[in-house]
Amino acid sequence: MVEKLKEQIYIIPLIMTKRVPRWQRSRRAVTEIREYLTRHMKSDDIKLDASINERIWSRGAEKPPSRVRVRAMKFEDGQVQAELAEE
Predict the structure, then answer these.
(1) Which of the 8 DSSP states describes residue 77?
(2) For residue 84, what is the enclosing H or E element?
(3) CA atoms within 13 A on the CB side of 81
(4) Positive or negative torsion for Cα 16, 17, 22, 28
(5) Domains of the chain
(6) Which of 5, 37, 47, 83 is 20 to 30 A from 30 via CA?
(7) 78 secondary structure, DSSP code
(8) Residues 68-84: tens digit of each pLDDT
(9) CB-CB contact of 37 with 46 (8 Å)
(10) Total-model pTM
């Protein structure tokens, strides 16, 4: 079984979503989360949980949240799994 190397909670700002057209904002927010985790966890293999997707799309495509709290876990094989952190 693959063991966890690192577990971290991040509050990811999604301010760049305001720079794209309104109908693309939630899609851009998912891209920003992947880019943020790639940069901070030093891995290209990012798996997002469905709870993150549901949180971003909860208010539709035009109004994603301004920030999201995520728990990211990096495993020995380099894979990063992210889920929504409980508040």
Answers:
(1) T
(2) strand 80-84
(3) 10
(4) positive
(5) 4-84 (3.10.440.10)
(6) 5
(7) S
(8) 999 999 999 999 999 99
(9) yes
(10) 0.91
Which tokens in the block code for residue 59? 């208010």
Site of tokens 């891995």: 43
Sequential DSSP letters for 7-76: EEEEEEE-GGGGGS-GGGHHHHHHHHHHHHHHHHHT-S-EEE-HHHHHHHHTT-SS---SEEEEEEEEET
Q: Over the stretch 9-35, which tens digit does the pLDDT of each residue have?
A: 999 999 999 999 999 999 999 999 999
Classify 3 as helix, strand or coil: coil
Q: Is the pLDDT of residue 87 over 70?
A: no
C-alpha distances (whole Å) from 18 to each of 11, 42, 73 are 18, 26, 28
Spatial distance between the Cα atoms of 38 and 54, rounded to a whole number of angstroms? 21
How far apart are the C-alpha atoms of 85 and 87, rounded to whole Å?
6
How far apart, in whole angstroms, are the C-alpha atoms of residue 37 and residue 23?
24
